[in-house]
Amino acid sequence: MIQVHDLHKHFGGFRAVDGASLTIETGSITGLIGPNGAGKSTLFNVIAGVLKPTSGKVLMDGEDISGLPPHELFHKGLLRTFQLAHEFSSMTVRENLMMVPAQQSGETLWNTWFQRGRIRAEERAIREKADEVLDFLTISHVADEKAGNLSGGQKKLLELGRTMMVDAKIVFLDEVGAGVNRTLLGTIGDAIVRLNRERGYTFCVIEHDMDFIGRLCDPVIVMAEGKVLAKGSAQNIMENEAVIEAYLGTGLKNKVAAEIEAERAQGGGHGAQPGLGKGTGNGPAGVPA
């Protein structure tokens, strides 16, 4: 669905994205990980039209979308969420969802005077759609709550819900687990999997928690210094020496390799690997953005 060819984004002399090339297959849940400053969020911003590329191309279903603004990409079915949720805090959760569909009849002054019946029918249909989304995400109980009062995890579910109010084809999720407790993170993960399997959504996910990535994502792409370092299954990525070195540096690489080998010998290797799982200060469960 998405092909990125030799993409560059420079800020003066700093090359945030430095020749990255990758493919996001239709119907996949692709993970994107990497150490601090790897260029992950900048790559998202370029693909989603928030930033214009310095050079290179982004294709969507074979069409060159490089540099198109976000509102045009929105209409093509490409949506992006952010690490910090962007809700309308003084509006209810339901109202936040009802704001999403574009070109509503009530937005035109002429229609507010002469097409009131049409507006009411349209709003009724949009409200029904919003309630369906709230049921799907298991947050119907906060439908009438002000969005600004939600927890971090509920706000992330609300952002996911916004993508369901339109015909999204691919959704880029930036640090969906940031500030979210484990229970709600599981709920978010369940919703992503259901949207993928039942509604055909394609996802690309930046996330620090390798347990979450390992559960949802295949393949996983690793970035470092603005380039793509590796691509593969979550298990293969966590055992990749170049990836371990990118996260932890050469000084710890041999130690981590020894820990992985020891864990294998004890019959482990099913979860996050030493130095790359939760519970370590530098692993992807708390990996720097």
Major beta-sheet overview: 6 strands, mixed
- What do we call the CATH topology of the largest domain? Rossmann fold
Distance N to C terminus: 25 Å
The CATH fourth-level homologous superfamily of the largest domain: P-loop containing nucleotide triphosphate hydrolases
Strand content: 15-25%
Main CATH class of the largest domain = Alpha Beta
Total number of helices: 11
| Helix/strand structural class | alpha/beta
**Count of strand segments:** 10
Element pattern in H and E: EEEHEEHEHHHHEHEHEEHHH
Globally, the shape reads: globular
Low-confidence stretches: 269-275, 277-289
Lateral strand order in the biggest sheet: 6-7-8-3-9-10
The CATH architecture designation of the largest domain is 3-Layer(aba) Sandwich
Helix-residue proportion: 25-40%
- Cα gyration radius (Å): 21 Å
Q: What is the mean pLDDT?
A: 84
How many structural domains are formed by the residues?
Answer: 2
Compact overview of the structure:
With 289 residues, this protein is α/β, with parallel strands linked by helices. It has helices at residues 40-47, 70-75, 93-98, 109-114, 116-136, 152-164, 182-199, 210-216, 234-238, 241-248, 250-265, and strands spanning 2-11, 14-24, 29-33, 55-60, 63-64, 78-80, 170-174, 202-206, 220-224, 227-232.
